[in-house]
From TrEMBL, chain A:
GO terms for molecular function: ABC-type transporter activity; ATP binding; ATP hydrolysis activity; molybdate ion transmembrane transporter activity. InterPro entries: AAA+_ATPase, ABC_transporter-like_ATP-bd, ABC_transporter-like_CS, Mo/tungstate-bd_C_term_dom, ModC_ABC_ATP-bd, Molybdenum_import_ModC, Mop_domain, P-loop_NTPase. It comes from Nitrospirillum amazonense. SMART domains: AAA. The keyword Manganese does not apply. Residues 1-239 form the ABC transporter domain. Keywords: ATP-binding, Cell inner membrane, Cell membrane, Membrane, Molybdenum, Nucleotide-binding, Translocase, Transport. GO terms for cellular component: membrane. PROSITE patterns: ABC_TRANSPORTER_1 (PS00211), ABC_TRANSPORTER_2 (PS50893), MOP (PS51866). Residues 300-366 form the Mop domain. This is Molybdate transport system ATP-binding protein.
Automatic annotation (TrEMBL), chain B:
Part of the binding-protein-dependent transport system for molybdenum; probably responsible for the translocation of the substrate across the membrane. One of its GO terms (molecular function) is molybdate ion transmembrane transporter activity. CDD domains: TM_PBP2. This is Molybdenum transport system permease. It comes from Nitrospirillum amazonense. Keywords: Cell inner membrane, Cell membrane, Membrane, Molybdenum, Transmembrane, Transmembrane helix, Transport. GO terms for cellular component: plasma membrane. It holds the Pfam family BPD_transp_1. The chain crosses the membrane at residues 20-40, 52-74, 86-110, 131-160, 200-218.
Amino acid sequence: MSAPPALDLDVTLRQGDFDLQAQVTAGRGLTVLFGQSGSGKSTLIDLVAGLKRPDRGRIAVDGVPLVDTAAGLWLPPHRRRVGYVFQEARLLPHLTVRQNLLYGRWFARRHVTAEAPTLDSVTDLLGIAPLLARRPAGLSGGEKARVALGRALLAAPRILLMDEPLAALDEARKAEILPYLERLRDHAGLPILYVTHAVAEVARLATTVVMMNQGRVRAVGAPGTLWSRPDLMDLTGGAEAGSLLDAVVGGRTADGLFQLDTAAGRILVPHLPPHLASGARTRLRIPARDVLLSDRAPQGLSALNILPGIVADVREDADGSRVVRLECVGAPVLARVTRTSADALSITPGQPLWAIVKAVALDRGS
Amino acid sequence: MNDFGFGPDEVAAIHLSLKVAIWATLASLPPGIAVALALARGRFWGRDLLNGVVHLPLILPPVVTGYALLLLMGRQGWVGKPLASIGIVFAFNWTGAALAAGVMGFPLMVRAIRLSIEAVDTRLEQAAGTLGAPPVWVFATVTLPLMLPGVLAGAVLAFAKALGEFGATITFVSNIPGRTQTLSGAIYAYTQSPGGDAGALRLVAVSVVLSLMALLLSETLARSVSRRIGGMS
């Protein structure tokens, strides 16, 4: 028998004018619930945590049913063993950091196995050992976020729920937390359900993306696939649209550029974030507006990265510009061009074109 | 105490006042917290009615409250009679003074506690729930500690009110020296007798000192609690 999915839900909920109908099956790794505010992604995570009740449906985590309205089953939040990391951290102000971290430990004592994280391993992982005696009021936003994460981990959860845990933090604090989340995703074996509307977080963290819009699931898939679909461009970013490409960090060229191998070809970048060593896997984002198109192999250009491809699809955007999807050896690259340019090149599906990539965003816009 | 020249009835009155106020405060805390919780969080039919009944002693003339207590809790009262048969007597007893003082202070206590409950962030309670804490635990480890400043404030208000209660007490349990005569009753008795000014002033001074001490104690406690909660206002 194959292992049950980490999360299996099929729910409907009506709240005033808002109507949520979602069916999601997610495996291991980090599943991002992506969508604008009001899309129902936070409601969905609250349903899993038991902070909201569905009108109808069922929710199971790791094969354990939490809700099944048909069978009259509804577990209260404290019996679900979900680790919930809230956007505002929600640390208990009258307890020390240590007491906050251990708050859920007592209730989880029957589920603490030998592999379960200990106070020491969690404080090491998150770098919060020096904070143990302090109280939440004296912590910075980044420190609070890490303590909240540690507190959820120590409660020995079946699944980790994170509701925009980085939204309240500035860029520097985000950069402080992201590596911990990556480590958690890659090494803890704990399924993570992660709510965000930030493409940079999707690019860096997501294994799978569930794209939500107006209370419905619009699409589910790998980030690279979803971000290359022109029919999802209203959700994947509009003016900020771009393609996501999986990449492996290669060596350096003689003149010091870093090589990134993607399915579309080799991309050269002048800088790499320090955590990316040779052989590391990463995901790069190519904003559609930073891609030029040429109908012949360009020469004498200052741009570093030129990828050959075949036009797969041309779509008119709301502002009249054209978004062209180019299949570059199997990996899609999106380019935004003006209508005039599109007409001048008479772009049609099947036509060979060259994509000239002006800028590449690696992880957090470096 | 006799070093200050207090007569035996005056000492008895001071003792009784303190005993009555302490008992009135301690005994009304559990129901005060329960009623405040019901009013702040509960959604039930008759909540407004409960709110009104709790506030009655605040708006009724104290004499009316005292008379109502006499009717209800007196030796022949609807509640007092069955209680008397098992040996619990309120009428013309110090326990009756404590009951009257407690009832009069109850609305003040409930108001203060209710405000502090409404200030508790329910999202913190939700967070504790997702960490595995059952509702009773959440109340004991999150709600109660966070509402503690309000509980203290309510207790001090009730204590001060109990210390100064006069109208309902004298109506319910009379003003018997050494038995039901509290500080207020003793001061009143002095003012009604010729040449009682000196005695009245002595007891007034005691009254002022006791009230100030209660206030100072509560301020100190409140400060240490908010320091412990850390940066919460």
